Amino acid sequence: MYREYYGFTHYPFGKDIPSDQLLLYRNFREYKKRMEFLQKHGGIGILWGESGAGKSAGLRWLRDSLNKNRYRLFYLPEPPNSVPDFYRQLALAMDLKPAFRRIDMYCQIQDHIIELAKEKRVLPIIALDECQMYPYQVLESVRLFLNFDMDSKDYAVLILCGQTELKKRLKRTVYEPLTLRVTIQHHFSGLDCEETEKYLLHRLELAGVKHQLFEPDAVQFIHQVTKGNMRKIDHLAVQSLFLGAGLKNNSIDQSVVDTAMQENLWA
Question: Among 109, 131, 142, 174, which one is least packed by beta carbons within 10 Å?
Fold first, then answer.
């Protein structure tokens, strides 16, 4: 209903936004610089932030921005239950038929990485999501299978992505052999208040509305209650627009957002 009332060409706060239309806010620009450094120098990258802070969008941008002749991204969205399960998932992501035994899968994956890097001149980038839920044995195995030529070569880039608990977990002494190999770290911290206003307007403009529908007091309130978390901003903006259309409001003020807040489980 609100789409027709406000004249949107499509729903403005969907999660299917193309990566080339993402708002380049300060934290995201820093993320891009660090990803470019990681691609050039190799090693391990750690990405963390609370749910909805932009990690998945960052990985989509990385996938879409890569030169396919030089890089190949392998993405595992779910945490494995065991080391063999991890090897099996990764082999399938690489379009390999997983071997039966664990050691054979290990060799199979290493051989494929070496073939890509040395023969085809393609750098594999392995991105693991939800790493805060990975068993210790799997994270240790990840470190070990990246050991090439007696740990003298970086034939692949590894990205460990997870929620805030991931960084807290990696500070434990038992993970020091892994963290010593880390090349870059990045915390997805969300938007500041000014960026929240730009983000709202950016998403409205992409959907065909060229003016700010959210009043200044509504923008400040949205930032205050979401703390710049983009997924929460999206949800609250949609609910506010839905209520605003029902009230026949031409714009969204704080009272509308406050009413919309009552429908949020995270509020």
Answer: 174
Give the CATH class of 2-8+191-261. Answer: mainly alpha
Provide long-range contacts, Cβ within 8 A and 24+ apart, for 244-247.
Answer: 244/2, 244/6, 244/213, 245/1, 245/2, 245/5, 245/6, 246/1
> How many Cα atoms occupy the beta-carbon half-sphere of 48 within 13 Å?
14
Q: What is the pLDDT of residues 104-124, one digit of tens each?
A: 999 999 999 999 988 899 999
CATH 3.40.50.300 fits 26-187, yes or no: yes
What residue segments make up the domains of the chain, in order of their start? 2-8+191-261, 26-187
Q: Is 263 helix (H, G, I), strand (E, B) or coil?
A: coil
> What contacts 8, CB < 8 A, 6 or more positions away?
2, 204, 207, 208, 209
Q: How many residues does the structure list for the chain? A: 267
Sign of the CA dihedral running 86, 88, 93, 94? positive
Positions of E strands within 16-132: 43-48, 71-76, 123-128
Is the entire prediction scored with pTM above 0.85? Answer: yes
